[in-house]
Amino acid sequence: MLKLQDGIKEIIRKTATSLPRDVEAALVRAYEGEADGSPAKEVLASMLENVSIAKSSSKPLCQDSGTPIFYARVPRGLSFPVIEKSIIEGVRLATGSVPLRPNAVDVLTDKNSGDNTGIGFPEIYFEQSEEDTLVIDLSLKGAGSENAGTFYKLPDERLKAERDLEGVRKCVLDAVYSIQGRACPPYTVGVGIAGTRIAAAALSRKALMSKLTDEPGDDRIRELEKKLLAQINELGIGAMGLGGSCTALGVKIKHAHRHTGSYFVDISIACWANRRSRLIW
Amino acid sequence: MAGKKIIRVETPLTEDAARALRVGDSVLINGIVLTARDKVHKHLVNKRPNPGDIPFELAGAVLYHAGPLMKEEDGKLEVVAAGPTTSQRMQMYEPFVIRHYGIRGIIGKGGMTGDVIQAMQEAGAVYFHAIGGAGALLAGKIKKIEGVWMLEEFGRAEAMWAFRVEDFPAVVTIDTTGASLHDQVEKLSQKRLEGLLST
After folding, report:
1. Mean pLDDT in chain B?
2. Nearest residue of chain B to residue A244 (CA atoms)
3. SS3 per-residue string spanning B167-188
């Protein structure tokens, strides 16, 4: 029987070397939407060429193979520590075989561990599930886009953003404007709304795991996502920030109840190569 | 930019060649480029090594903001993916590096601002914007690894690599007149943001 660590290694290879179908389709639509001969169209053409080279040669799309972030939903009877061990071993194996760039640096010694493992690295989140199968979602999150994440506390006087969805809209537009082209647009924008910093940040990054084609259950969220996508694209930042009509491929919003006194809006950005996959075991 | 011709750029760059380039020019870079990211920049500014202690000629050089992904097979190194990294992290170091070491070109992504644009204007250096995330595509433009500096100290992703590149594609987004495509896009988006926030 195939070991879980080998399954992890394989899902890392797939995630590093190819794009989810919905993301690639959105890039193709972005390419088709830009004017012939514009820098944005040339850039998008090169991105799509890169996707095809990476896939056919099984090489990572980007030299920054990212921070591996795992979300594991574990059926009853399986132990978290055992799965954690397999994930870490899978990351270690994949670093050599894919290969991945060693990205884990010890904060105290400034030394790179060389195998993408270390304290809290890779990031692993566990959830107990009622299902029969183990489901592991993986994101390879590049640093350029992670560094672009930001948060707001509402109300925000500068933006005249109040504690409502209209205030959230203003924060998201301001965040994307502030990043400009530095985090490799067209972006997927994840938004988390909650009453604590941690909850909002966890939600905004989890939002990046949604498919672009997923529809939120709540009409108000669906409308805000649609409106924000259109308005972000009106900013004109464009692919790689060189100007153009596609600055984002999608906006995904997740929310939790908040404390009466707090209203956090956290924004996580994924670069155009939003590398995510699911392993069902 | 439709139908615009593509300019072939040879490294090392002369001051005249750098000053002839303009924002919006599409270029194909040929010759040696030197990778330099966070740790190399910090080292160049804080330790100020003499040019003689660095195994590559920095005067006229093109620096590449990149942390490549390398693979070693049978004792031979291969560049697997090598796209640009975000240049803004080098912002506080770059004016000194450009002036002190005579750098003529920076390849990166996302652009640089203020003091760097001023240093480029004075010293005669330009910014080449490469396509972020196109690591596999751009690795194909690297034909040879000519050498490496600070490999032990900084590791493969942060060392200074001398790569021989052929027809490495980029767009000039900051030139020696002080013009910056990044500033232009930011100003336009600021106007649109103001409109969207007031609705």
Report:
1. 95
2. B185
3. EEEEEEEECCCCCEHHHHHHHH
CATH code at B155?
3.20.130.10
> What was the pLDDT predicted at B5?
79
> Which is the catalytic residue, given B41, B43, B129, B182?
B41
CA distance B192 to chain A (A): 6
- What is the value of ipTM here, to two decimals? 0.91
Q: Does any domain span residue B1?
A: no
Residue B102's domain comprises 6-198
- B133 and A54 within 8 Å at the Cβ level: the answer is no
- What pLDDT does residue A1 have? 53
Number of domains in chain A: 1
CA–CA dist A175, A186 (Å, integer) = 14
CB contact under 8 A, B137 and A53: yes
Residue B4 has a pLDDT of 66
Residue B2's pLDDT is 44
Q: Is residue A154 part of a domain?
A: yes
Residue A271 in contact with partner chain B when CB distance is under 8 A: yes
Measured CA distances, A247 to A34, A148, A200, A240 (Å): 11, 14, 23, 8
Question: In terms of CA atoms, which chain B residue is nearest residue A144?
Answer: B86
* pLDDT class of A129 with cuts at 50, 70, 90: very high
How near does any CA of chain A get to the CA of B85, in Å?
A: 7
- Residue A18 covered by a domain: no
Task: Give a yes or no: residue A253 inside a domain.
Answer: yes
Dihedral sign computed on CA atoms, order A249, B181, A41, B163: negative
B100 given a catalytic annotation: no
Q: How many domains does chain B have?
A: 1
A235: nearest CB among B3, B66, B193: B193
Structural domain contains residue A31: no
Closest C-alpha to A273, from A204, A203, A191, A183: A183
